Amino acid sequence: MRSSNPVFSRRGFSRDNGYAGFNAAPQAGGPAVGTQGGPYAGPYAGAPTNPYAQNPYAQQGVQYGAPPQAPATSDRMTMDDVVVRTAGTLGVLVVAAAVAWALLPVDDASINRSYGIAVASGLVAMVLGLIQSFKRSPTPALIITYAALEGVFLGVLSSIVDNRIASGAAMQAVLGTMAVFAAVLVAYKAGWIRVNRRFYGFVMAAALGFVGLMMINLLFSVFGGGDGLGFRSGALGVVFGILGVLLGACFLALDFKQIETGVAYGAPRREAWLAAFGLTLTLVWIYLEFLRLIAILQSDN
């Protein structure tokens, strides 16, 4: 079982890194690591076994009553590692966004140039994000570069919305994103959100449906003009904006579960960069949905 986040879903926390992944193949003499005889491995199966530990006796078919332990090493990911790297990645993104807001004006004389730079930065950031998602190990320089370019894109886009469509939208979107993050974290730690196989399946189905509808709407808008099927404007736009925020909140819960499991079961320290990258992607998603929602609501007033 893997996270909904495109980064985590590609690799879990540990593909080809000397640890067993969340979708580890069945070992000789027993079911897959992280399962209780079922086909689903990882933290969503509710099993007490360690998805990161290797069992040196597995090839001999020897089984013991106690679950396997994480490898004895000091180079293991901690929650502090995740917090520091996430803060650093988001810090770079925020600084880049602030610089882009200040140096790339969106007045009538400059908006085309600023918007062109923003689109180019966003496209390069998307490519870098895809490259990192398919890499076998996190690359800090790649992640930081992604954050900087994504920040440029968000800075210009936020400035356009804030100055030309809905005054104050950027700050409201930031506050909304922070509120969702805090609320999901509290709900997750309190046990109000149970991340299990059913929750994962529901979120993935909802995400596929949401993205599919947005792609159809985009195609209609490109070839038919206007706002396509109207999924991003008016009443339907508000509904889909709210659904987008809720979906982002579900992504956060899945990411928290993946990180918690990685810390508990001894993922390598370098995987903290992967956690930071995944959380950044999710927070950018939530911010953009808030920004779009606020723009729709204020433009209709």
Tell me what the structure shows.
- The structure is a single chain.
- This protein is mostly helical and 301 residues long.
- It has 8 helices and no strands.
- What structural category characterises the helix and strand content? mainly alpha
Low-confidence stretches: 14-48, 54-68
Characterize the largest beta sheet: strand count, sense, and whether it forms a barrel. Answer: none
**Count of individual beta strands:** 0
Number of helices: 8
What string gives the helices and strands in order?
HHHHHHHH
Mean pLDDT: 80
Rounded radius of gyration (Å) = 21 Å
Query: What assembly state would you assign to the polypeptide chains in this entry?
Result: single chain
- Beta strand %: under 5%
N-to-C span? 45 Å
- Which term fits the overall shape? globular
Secondary structure: helix percent: 55-70%
